[in-house]
Amino acid sequence: MRKKDLTKEVRIQDATAAIILKEGAAAVSTVKVAKRVGISQSNVYLYFKNKDDLLLSVYQREQARIQAAGDLNQLTDKTIALPVRLRLYMRGIFDYAVDHPESLTLIQQIKFLMGQDDGNPLLATVQGTQNIVETLMQEAVDAGVIRNVPVNVHMSLVFSMIHTHTLNLKRGLYQPTDYSFETFYDLLWSGIKGPAAD
Amino acid sequence: MRKKDLTKEVRIQDATAAIILKEGAAAVSTVKVAKRVGISQSNVYLYFKNKDDLLLSVYQREQARIQAAGDLNQLTDKTIALPVRLRLYMRGIFDYAVDHPESLTLIQQIKFLMGQDDGNPLLATVQGTQNIVETLMQEAVDAGVIRNVPVNVHMSLVFSMIHTHTLNLKRGLYQPTDYSFETFYDLLWSGIKGPAAD
Amino acid sequence: MRKKDLTKEVRIQDATAAIILKEGAAAVSTVKVAKRVGISQSNVYLYFKNKDDLLLSVYQREQARIQAAGDLNQLTDKTIALPVRLRLYMRGIFDYAVDHPESLTLIQQIKFLMGQDDGNPLLATVQGTQNIVETLMQEAVDAGVIRNVPVNVHMSLVFSMIHTHTLNLKRGLYQPTDYSFETFYDLLWSGIKGPAAD
Amino acid sequence: MRKKDLTKEVRIQDATAAIILKEGAAAVSTVKVAKRVGISQSNVYLYFKNKDDLLLSVYQREQARIQAAGDLNQLTDKTIALPVRLRLYMRGIFDYAVDHPESLTLIQQIKFLMGQDDGNPLLATVQGTQNIVETLMQEAVDAGVIRNVPVNVHMSLVFSMIHTHTLNLKRGLYQPTDYSFETFYDLLWSGIKGPAAD
DNA sequence: TATGAATGAGTGTTCATTCAT
DNA sequence: AATGAATGAACACTCATTCAT
């Protein structure tokens, strides 16, 4: 009995990611993916039941990686002060994104392709994983540690700032060392911190 | 191309926009557009030479509207203090976006569909129009009025904050009156303002 | 403005019918149909919105032809005695089927391919057209002119007898003149006629 | 092929039959069958060399069952009068079909799917098995016991009458007790019996 | 200006079948 | 005996685009 080729599943995901980064999520097709991996088109369906399933898996893999980079346990550790935890969260994403500058682009592309149906139950599931951060943020809002605006506004600020930075890096506009995490953190924290921040 | 019946040109754009908002930019097709307008498919090509051309025109129209909402003359008026001009700019976008909550979604969808080729010459053209704001921001950075981070980081913060807000409104998460412009402006300004801000 | 090529619609139907007769309804594919007509595959969708739509149209066309062959007005003419009307009905189908020995095969093949979903609303519509005959038969049952068995049993007897006969003819088992309508009518009528038949 | 595990061979046939009854013979696929049985797709090919082989075996099994229900020995027993033997034949099928209302549908579906090629050598083989009945009928025709029409016309009358009845039962249109065998036998016999019947 | 017709290339997906294990 | 992997061919259907009218 031949082993389920785990390598291939990953290679398919990698090919998909590569296409997304090069041509956009809308340009992903099973033909292109298969051609890139060097397998037959129908083979894709051995590892993913759908194109949606494939895209979703790439999305989930990317989110899992980001979360693995940060230390989730710390984020829920109530013995750590909220501002510290928020900083840890941002630091985690930032470091990962700078190391993997395609990561956030990937996430955003897939989200914008699939999320439009508004109520796509699959993406909802994934979002659920992110609830840890959302919960953390909501806590911080309630405690007055960060400003009283909708939490997804806070989150989108973090995301778009870091994403834009990594895009700039990828385009070679400047060097990673030109702007430190502190620079961005400072900017953001000055903006979002609430009356009870310190 | 692009002849007499201006009404129809607009109706085609409107239909395109509607499809983007409902199903995402990737779902736009000349068939759907034509059906929605009630014309024949080939008629679309009388007004737009391409599907890309069509999408681009919707993109440009939307950006033009936003800019028309703000007072561009003021933004370049050197007799007005930089912080004031920046506020005017944000206010302009904010007011327009709250009034037209689909606007930023439209822009983002098209950008993410077409912009991925990275070097799409058409979108580059459009970006040019936005140089007014970019120039303003760069000026502010140079003067130390806002922090020394890449200007597109500043801009993406403005964009994503307001966009997230309008999405929340459209989803009915809260009422427009629940969060004033001041709230968001305060947050953002606290974040981005530089040493020479006041 | 080019005229909607009515010829082609018919040619597509004809090709479909030919395939059904040669290989069975399950073997119909848009590729085969198009190839047979000498057009591109996608062209089929200009004339029929579906493969189902195409099959259905062939089905309906065949039924319409059969009904046009018989004189429907007579069947509902209450001044004509029931036995006479029943005979007219059988005669109509018989003559048409002998002249067009593929007709009943066509109908049966499509019915067996599409009708399995049991509740296919499209076929139901078509069956509706046949209600005229069903009504006639029910009348005859109620009047004791034909035996008290479910009307569709009566109808299937007529159909299968004639169908088998035409199949035999097509296979060249014997000549049309070898068995007259009278022969079959006699057989059937002796079977189905009720106590109040004469 | 066709090795040890007889249970599995049967289970595959059962699954096939179930699919035919639910979705029609054209919808049968080895994937679906395997899924239904809970085995791997390729396993099917251990028991049947073909999809055609599989379908054929289901067909043959069904015909064998029907024939086993009737007493074949009696049908060829020349000491029994022809009319009696014909009645026995009809009674056998009727009883079996009422008990197994899917039986005739199964046979018909497969016949219509495979038999269209007209000359399918496999089905021809099967028909051979039925020669016993055909011979009986031919004998009856020659003796003037039943009318002088092609024997397959006689046979199709029997088949379609009973089939329609069982379909009605399955659809719940009436109860099995509502129409006795006698009712149908009487109808049919009155129709087909020849000058030398009694 | 407007349209219906036409097409070729493309889409995602399913399938029957084979083969190494 | 049984399976997972693999594939090539087929499928229905959609699309952007062109062209004659």
Shape label of chain A: elongated
Largest interface: C-D, 41 and 40 residues
CATH superfamily of the domain at 71-192 in chain A: Tetracycline Repressor, domain 2
CATH architecture assignment name of the domain at 71-192 in chain A: Orthogonal Bundle
Termini Cα gap of chain A: 61 Å
By CATH reckoning, the class of the domain at 71-192 in chain A would read Mainly Alpha
InterPro entries (chains A, B, C, D): Homeodomain-like_sf, HTH-type_TetR-like_transc_reg, HTH_TetR, Tet_transcr_reg_TetR-rel_C_sf
Domain HTH tetR-type (chains A, B, C, D): 6-66
Keywords (chains A, B, C, D): DNA-binding
Protein name (chains A, B, C, D): Transcription regulator
Please write out the topology:
The structure is a homotetramer of 198-residue chains.
Chain A: H1 6-23, H2 30-37, H3 44-47, H4 51-69, H5 72-75, H6 82-99, H7 103-114, H8 121-129, H9 131-142, H10 151-170, H11 181-192
Helix pairs in contact in A: 1-2, 1-4, 4-7, 6-9, 6-10, 9-10
The structure holds a DNA duplex (21 and 21 nucleotides).
What does this structure look like?
Four copies of one chain form a homotetramer. By secondary structure, chain A is mainly alpha-helical. Chain A has a domain at 71-192: Tetracycline Repressor, domain 2 (Orthogonal Bundle). Helices cover 69% and strands 0% of the residues of chain A. In chain A, helix 1 crosses helix 4. The first copy, chain A, is elongated, with a radius of gyration of 19 Å. The relative contact order of chain A is 0.11. Chain C binds chain D through residues 20-27, 108-109, 112-113, 116-117, 147-150, 152-153, 156-157, 159-161, 163-165, 168, 173-174, 179, 183-184, 186-192, and chain D through 22-27, 108-109, 112-113, 115-117, 147-150, 152-153, 156-157, 159-161, 163-165, 168, 173-174, 179, 183-184, 186-192. The first copy, chain A, binds a DNA duplex (21 and 21 nucleotides) through loops. Chains A, B, C, D: Keywords: DNA-binding. Chains A, B, C, D: This is Transcription regulator.
